[in-house]
Amino acid sequence: MPPTERRSVRDRVLTGPLRHAATMATAFLLFGIILLLAGRDPVQAYRDILTSTLGSAYGLSEVAVTMTPLLLTALAVALPSRLGLINVGGEGQLYMGALLASWAALHLSQLPGWVLLPVMMVLGMVGGGLWAFIPGYLRAKGIVNETITTLLLNAVAPSIVSFFVFGFWHSPMDTNKTANFVAAARLPTLPGTRVDLSLVLGLGLLALFWFVMKYTRWGLEMRSIGGNPWASRRNGIPVARYLVVVMCVAGALAGLAGMAQVSGYYGVLLANFSRGLGYMGFLVSWLAGGSPLGIVVTSFVVAVILSGGNLLQLTGDVPYSIINILLAMTLFVVLARPQLSRSRRPA
Amino acid sequence: MAAVQAGKPSEKSRSATGSPLLSVKGLTKRFPGVLANDDVSLEIFPGEVHALLGENGAGKSTLVKCVYGYYQRDAGQFLVDGVPVDLRTPEDARRHHIGMVFQSLTLIPALSVVENVALFLPDLPALPDLSAIAREIQTLGERYRLQVDPWAQVQDLSIGQQQKVELLKLLLARARVLILDEPTRVLAPHEVEGLFEILRHLVADGLAVVFITHKLAEVLQSADRITVMRRGRLAGQLLRAEATHEKLIRLMFEKEVSSLSIVSPKADTPSDRPVLELRQASTQAAGATIGLEAIDLTIHAGEIVGVAGVSGNGQRELGDLILGELRCVGGTKTLFGNDVTRATIGELRRRGVSFIPEDPLKMAAIPFLSVLENMAVTRGDHYARRAGLGMDWAAVQQDAENAIQQLGFSLPLSAPARSLSGGNLQRMVIVRELSHDPQLIVASYLTRGLDAQSTSAAQRALLQAQQRGAGILLISEDLEELFLLSDRLVVMYGGRIVGRFKPEETDGYAVGRLMTGSQAEMHAAD
Question: Parallel, antiparallel, or unpaired for β B353-356 and B440-444?
Answer without folding.
Answer: parallel
